[in-house]
Amino acid sequence: MGVQHEELFLLEPTSAPHVEHVTVVLAERTPVVRQGLRRVLETHPPIEPQRTYEVVGETTPDGEAVSMVARLKPHVLLIEMPMVLLDVMETFQKASPKTRIVFYTGDPGQVIVTRALKLGAAGVVLKESPVCEILLALRSVMKGQRYLSPPLQEYAIQALIKQAQQTANDPYFQLTLREQEVFHLVLKGLTARQIADKLVISTRTAETHRINIMRKLGLRTQRDLFRYALDKGLDKEFAAIPASKAVGS
Q1: Over residues 201-209, mean pLDDT
Q2: Which of 33, 63, 140, 219 shows the smallest number of beta carbons within 10 Å?
Q3: How far apart are CA 54 and CA 21, in angstroms?
Q4: Cα dist from 181 to 93, 123, 133, 219, whole Å
Q5: What's the average model confidence in pLDDT over 28-34?
């Protein structure tokens, strides 16, 4: 297991079963825009001839949208991006966990796009995009992928560059693979002898690895080690250890 970073949200595909008839709920403030989106989805020549789209509900991006998604359980929610992302994402995900959320928006800036993806959005499409791009976005998310309009993809690149820079500067990644193994076993509460038995090394070697880990991470006590793990989001590693050990030396 590696160290978790705040910006980690790789645009990785996930497994998704093929669906030929995709149901969509539109949540947009302007009726004219909703009508245009419906027309694109239901009448535009499909990118994939074997797949069709049906708009099963239209509403505004407010409380009514949540109840509609909870009732209809669409494959995709295409929603105008609201300002308060956290509450919206959690609410919709609880209402229909399998519904993929695609935001339809003007350029909201890197912080909002990054946050939307981290919170589980399947995609972000710019309003000024050509109509066929909406179909491209839905095709991608129905394959289990994430989608960003081309102008927004630079934001993802910048976030990944920032993540790589943080990783390079993190002393955890200066540990050897063996030291990382020992690090996580220490968090699980294993003694030097137990670590030696598990890794088929001598107790002295296990203790040497532990000393090197403390030195490389700039730590002095067992308490420092657990605090370091908490700061890095590794608290699940020592969930079974008594709280006194996590806060004391």
Answers
A1: 94
A2: 63
A3: 7
A4: 35, 36, 45, 17
A5: 91
pLDDT the model gives residue 46:
67
CATH topology of domain 171-247: Arc Repressor Mutant, subunit A (1.10.10)
Query: In the numeric block, which tokens belong to residue 236?
Result: 């699940």
Q: What DSSP element (H or E) covers 55? A: strand 52-59
**How do strand 100-105 and strand 123-126 relate by DSSP bridges?**
parallel
pLDDT of res. 164: 67
- DSSP annotation of 45 reads P
Task: Dig out the tokens for 231 from the structure.
Answer: 């700061």
Determine the 3-state secondary structure of 28 from DSSP. Answer: coil
Is the CATH number of domain 21-161 3.40.50.2300?
yes
What distance, in Å, lies between the first and last C-alpha atoms of the chain? Answer: 24
Q: What is the DSSP string of 102-120?
A: EEEES---HHHHHHHHHTT
Greater confidence (87 vs 14) lies with 87
Domain boundaries, the chain: 21-161, 171-247
